[in-house]
Known about the structure:
The protein is of the alpha/beta class. It is 46% helix and 16% strand.
Amino acid sequence: xxxxxxxxxxxxxxxxxxxxxxxxxxxxxxxxxxxxxxxxxxxxxxxxxxxxxxxxxxxxxxxxxxxxxxxxxxxxxxxxxxxxxxxxxxxxxxxxxxxxxxxxxxxxxxxxxxxxxxxxxxxxxxxxxxxxxxxxxxxxxxxxxxxxxxxxxxxxxxxxxxxxxxxxxxxxxxxxxxxxxxxxxxxxxxxxxxxxxxxxxxxxxxxxxxxxxxxxxxxxxxxxxxxxxxxxxxxxxxxxxxxxxxxxxxxxxxxxxxxxxxxxxxxxxxxxxxxxxxxxxxxxxxxxxxxxxxxxxxxxxxxxxxxxxxxxxxxxxxxxxxxxxxxxxxxxxxxxxxxxxxxxxxxxxxxxxxxxxxxxxxxxxxxxx
Length: 369
C-alpha cells in the first residue's frame, strides 16, 4: 500500500468521558495532519463540550450517520476507529475502501462483547429477535470488519491473541495506552489513600465476580466495603447489594447512584485496599489510580492485568493466593511510594506522548512501503 501525498489521519470517536482527553493527547503531537469525528446522541451538548478544540466534526448518531462516516473516510488515508462500536464496524463491513489503513483502538467492550458472544460467557436469556440481531452483529458485521483491520492498538498482547483465537484477521498488534497519570489525577493531583476502607470491584457487571471478593474477606469487621455499582446490569446490582448487606451489614456501602467526581474520589481515598476479581482486562484506569495513590491492590491471577502489572515492576497481590482477612493491612510506605513512582515513570503524559508519536510514525511509515 503506497501513498504519494501527505498522509491524512482521521480519528472516529464515540462521545465518551475519555474522548476529550484522548483528542488533546493527539493534538500535542506535531508533524501529523489529524482530524477528529465524534459520534454523539446529543450533538448540541457535544458542540459545547468540545468548543474551541481544533479539527473536530460532531456527527449526529440519529441522522444518517452511517453514510456520513462512509463519506468522511474517503478523504483520509489512515482511520483510527477509537472503539470498534457497532456503527463503525457496520460501515467497515458494508463498504469497500481502497488504499485506506484502518486502526482499531481498543476500549474494552468492543472486544469483550464479541468474545462473550462467541464463548457464551454472558447470559443468553434473550428472545428470538434479540438472538437473530446478535447473530447478525457478531457473525456477519464484526466478522467482516475484523478482516479489514490493519492494526490492533491493544494494551495487552493477551487480548490480541484472544481476538485471533476467535476471529480471522491479519491485523498487526501494537501495545498502546491513552490514559495518563495527569488525566487520572486531574481533579485530585495529590491523590493519596488515607483510610481503612476496602474497594470491591468497579461496576455492576458479572465480570466483577463480587461474591468471590465477599467470600474472601467475610468476617472482616469495622471496615467499610466501598462497592461501585452505579453503572451496568441493574439485576446484578440488586443481587450484589442483597448479598453484600447480608454478609457485611452496615459496613457494606454500595454506590448505586452517580456521584459528583469529587465525592467519588473522596471515597476512593478512604480505600487502603483495592480488590478487583475480573478475569478479563477491566478497570485499568481505576487500578492504576489506586496503585498511584498507595492502595494495596489484589487482582485475580486469571486477569491479564495481573501479569501485566507484575511484569512492569508493580507490587500487587493475588486474590487466589494472598487475599484473606490477615492480608488487609495497608501497604508499607516504601512499597506504596515505589508503586507511585512506577506509575509516573510508565504513564506520565510525556511518556504516553512519546509512545503515541512513535506509533503514528510507524503506521505512517508503513503507508509508504
